[in-house]
Amino acid sequence: MGTMVGHVAPGFGFLVIGLWHLFNHVRLRSVRPASYASLPWFPAGAGKLRHLELHLIALGSLASISMELVIGPEKHQPFDDDGSIPSNHLHNFEHAAISLALLVYAVLGVALDRLRAPLRDELTMLLAAAAFAQQLLMFHLHSADHMGVEGQYHRLLQTVIAVSLATALLAVARPRSFLISFVRSASIAFQGVWFVVMGFMLWTPGLISKGCFMNLEEGHRVVRCHTTEALDRAKSLVNLQFSWFMTAFVVFCVLFYLLVTRAYPEEPRYLPVVKEEGGSHDEEEEEMDLESQKLMESASFARMGKGLIRAMELESSVATSDSPQSRPASPCDSPQPRPASPCDSPSRALPRATTISLHTLPRRDIELPRDVDRRRTETSTIPRPLPRASLTRCDETRFSKLKWSLVGSSGLLK
């Protein structure tokens, strides 16, 4: 990591992962704000692409470890002849330890997801917090000399890593907080930005501050300054760079948030009524149809209510006229014992709530015109009314009682 490539390559990785998280968090919050929950990583697709993010982190970590311990050293191994770690390779082991923490996070994250372990999101977030903690510890207790310009860059980087660590721990306790996830994703992306800035500003001779130069020390180049005044000036310029880049990145994050929320509006909680394209004229016609339908329904309810009222009035008037006080005594109503009559025979007795079907009455055929279909004339009959003269006084009384009992029962059913 003590070269331009060693800073720009991991910085580009942090920037991509941070922007990927920022995009997904904003999209999820915009589409489903009520059910939003923070996630430690996001699937890139279905099937084999699901763990693409974690696979890329694992591959990048392995590449970084290889560069620090195998490819970077002159002997392609970081140990001395007696098996000890030389002082000029201590920073290589420190950088490899940071990459190892990220590798553990990625591998265990894939394992927890494939095993469907309970609380896998919370445990994965704790693994990310552990990786940030180890990164912060290594940069704070770095074995390299961080008293000069390079040290100022690393001190400012530690503040960003501390924000990532704090928000990762807060996300475990409050997974539904969008602002915590937003700040964590932005801090990860800004880590990448600052790594890239460090790579170019510390290892590009034309970008070194006035009064400073590059010096080869313990196998890697370090920026040194001729005077204390030049060193203080270089550190002040580093602080200004950090402030300017942070301001620009804050503006970028807000604009990015607005663009994503506009591109992914909130999904409706209920399915809308599908309407055909027809402009405002069709919508007005539909509203008029709905209003007319409501008026028709209200009119039909009004007519039904009037009909019920009339039926109730008619029932009450008939019941009053058929009461024993308002009609003359009948032989059927006489309480005195009398001889049996045909009215009292079981075959002529009618139940109180029995309905009379017109199809049981005598029917006679009606002769229709010849041009009518014969198939219909064979079954075209109408009921013949029962002769009034054939009914006795008792029959009339029983039919009257049966009729109004049926009317009363039908009123109760309604």
From TrEMBL:
Subcellular location field: Membrane
Its organism's taxonomic lineage begins at: Eukaryota, Viridiplantae, Streptophyta, Embryophyta, Tracheophyta
Where is the stretch described as Disordered? 315-389
Alphabetic keyword roster:
Membrane, Transmembrane, Transmembrane helix
Similarity remark: Belongs to the TMEM45 family.
For this protein, the parts annotated as crossing the membrane are 6-23, 54-73, 93-111, 123-141, 153-173, 185-204, 242-260
Q: Record's Pfam families? A: DUF716
Q: Which GO terms describe its cellular component?
A: membrane
Q: Where is the composition biased (Basic and acidic residues)?
A: 362-378
Q: Establish whether keyword Hydrolase is in the entry.
A: no
> Its membrane topology, per UniProt?
Multi-pass membrane protein
Q: What is the protein named?
A: Transmembrane protein 45B
Composition bias (Polar residues) maps to 317-328
Q: What is its main location?
A: membrane
